[in-house]
Design goal:
heterodimer, A: 144 residues, alpha+beta, Alpha-Beta Plaits, 2 domains, 4-stranded antiparallel sheet, two-stranded antiparallel sheet, 3 helices, 18% helix, disordered C terminus, B: 403 residues, 9-stranded antiparallel sheet, 29% strand, globular
């Protein structure tokens, strides 16, 4: 199973080789999509976890034991359906086709499961209907 | 009425009055432009013209050259407003004492514009229009020089649309008949009114409802003219003149449909009867603000030519690929190939041998909903067709009898 998670590291854990232990002990595949972790500071990481279901669950438990909050990323990215008027401008920009056109009706679909929270869609949407409920690394250089 | 019919070159001849009588009696056959495409394909234009009375169209997209005339009501003492802002967005006040025009692309005062590139343009005239229609209170400020009849020099007040004596949506150029497909052939990203375009032609944006679009279903403006009653912003509006940049002389295909941006419409309607669902303030990154307008036009099927026109399909409507990285801003008239709306809607086109993913900027689900809504209004007898009092400038055209 492959799922994308949003991790928040507390200050105390941010200097530890957490990912190394996860890979060694739980045999999960890691794909780091975004990370902002600095010593003595809170940090965030967006990771894709791939592995057997139990192992992924165990690795998430291990993270929790270290005080790392782990949430499904899908819950952190949201489209305001009242704002979106289905124009499709986002679909040319989304790099992972989480925003895509469903043919033949040409409806604009958002699939939060595929979203990596890169944030490119946020300023491209003419009515600002896309919301990421964490600060996407608080700088725009990562988005450019 | 019988004389003109005998001279007619058409097999089917209907008048506006006949169609309106059928609408009144609840007998009119009304279909959307999507449905008409199938009907004409199956039955041919003559049969389709016999059977169908009205074809409804729709488009819902960003349309610059939109705005509102407002009369904001007098103050005591009275004022002859010289400078006016609504929610910090400047309106043009040089019309009369308290008449103003607020345009969709006017940014808010103190907006950093593109000084922080690319600018966000979070709020502007289009957003004010949406807020007004949504019933929100807006903050109006006016400055004036005093006169003997208008002594007041300033005014600040919260006001809602309902409190204004008069509000007219008046869009000098809407419903563009076809538009460019935009790509960026330069080596850096560009932020345009056609959206964000990646360098080296890595995406292509287009902006038309294609076979549902009003002017693509009446390509020679044979029924859409001055006085045509339309769906505008969720309410009822009218075509009042040709729009700015109306260009009937654009190149056309065998079906009469232009392959370049061509006709445009000036439209008006009572803002107070419109809905924020169909008038949306938009922010185009790096470009500015604007207004997304929902617009639909009923096309009377007066004869088999109108059936042929409204039977047009996305496969038969073409546009050109234009470079917005260098050519457009430098006024270079050059294109990189012709593509059909069927190709554009498929999600991929080919530009100079390279496969390029496409994205629409015009809402197809919105356009379809407008065509359906208009169809419902006509079927229920509450919307009648307006017969143009004058036509828009057009071009010579007749169908090739061989085909």
């Amino acid at each position: 199973m492959t799922k994308i998670y949003f991790l928040r590291y507390p200050k105390e854990t941010s200097s530890q080789p957490v990912i190394y232990h996860l890979i060694q002990r739980y045999e999960v595949e890691f794909n780091i999509l975004k990370a902002d972790i600095r010593p003595q500071r809170d940090g965030i990481m967006v990771v894709e976890l791939k592995g057997q279901k139990e192992k992924v669950t165990d690795s998430l438990d291990y993270l929790k034991s270290l005080g790392v909050q782990a949430e499904r990323l899908a819950g952190k990215v949201h489209r305001d359906e009242n704002k979106c008027y289905q124009c499709g401008a986002c679909t040319g920009i989304c790099p992972v086709a989480a925003l895509y056109i469903q043919r033949p009706g040409m409806e604009v679909i958002f699939d939060p499961e595929k979203c990596t929270a890169c944030g490119l869609c946020v300023p491209v949407c003419p009515v600002r209907s896309m919301e990421i409920s964490f600060d996407p690394m608080s700088d725009t250089t990562a988005l450019a | 009425m019988s004389d003109p019919k005998q001279e007619s070159k058409f097999e089917v001849n209907k008048t506006y009055a006949e169609i309106n009588a059928r609408i009144k009696a609840g007998e009119a056959v009304v279909v959307t432009a999507d449905e008409m495409t199938d009907i004409v394909r199956q039955e041919g234009p003559v049969e389709a013209a016999r059977r169908v009375d009205v074809v409804t169209t729709g488009t819902f997209s960003t349309m610059c050259s939109s705005g509102v005339f407002l009369n904001f009501g007098q103050t005591n003492p009275t004022i002859k407003a010289q400078k006016v802002w609504i929610n910090k967005v400047s309106a043009y006040a040089g019309i009369a004492a308290i008449d103003i025009y607020l345009g969709a692309t006017e940014p808010a005062e103190h907006d950093p514009l593109n000084q922080v590139y690319p600018g966000d343009f979070r709020y502007g005239g289009g957003h004010v229009i949406e807020d007004l229609v949504a019933g929100k209170a807006v903050f109006l400020e006016a400055k004036a020089y005093p006169t003997d009849c208008y002594a007041n020099t300033k005014c600040k007040k919260e006001i809602t649309l309902a409190e204004m004596p008069y509000a007219l949506l008046c869009n000098p150029r809407n419903a563009y008949q076809n538009y460019n497909c935009a790509v960026n052939l330069s080596d850096k990203i560009v932020y345009t009114y056609m959206g964000t375009l990646k360098p080296n032609c890595r995406n292509a944006n287009y902006c038309s409802a294609g076979q549902l679009s009003p002017l693509l279903n009446d390509p020679l403006y044979r029924t859409i003219g001055i006085g045509t009653r339309i769906f505008l912003g969720g309410g009822v509006g009218y075509v009042t003149f040709r729009g700015t940049q109306h260009n009937p002389g654009a190149p056309r295909g065998d079906n009469g449909v232009p392959t370049r941006p061509a006709g445009t419409l000036m439209v008006q309607g009572d803002l107070k009867k419109m809905s924020a669902d169909w008038l949306r303030g938009v922010s185009l990154r790096g470009y500015g603000t604007s207004l997304a307008v929902g617009l639909g036009i009923p096309i009377p099927i007066l004869n088999e030519d109108m059936a042929r026109f409204t039977g047009v399909s996305d496969e038969e409507i073409f546009t050109h690929v234009v470079d917005y990285g260098h050519d457009y801003t430098n006024g270079i008239a050059r294109h990189y190939g012709k593509v059909s709306y069927a190709q554009l809607k498929s999600g991929e086109i080919e530009v100079a041998g390279q496969k390029v993913p496409t994205a629409p900027l015009s809402s197809l689900p919105g356009a379809r909903k407008i065509a359906e809504t208009l169809k419902g209004w006509i079927q229920s007898g509450k919307f009648h067709l307006g017969e143009p009092v004058d036509n828009l400038p057009s071009a010579d055209f007749s169908f090739n009898p061989e085909k």
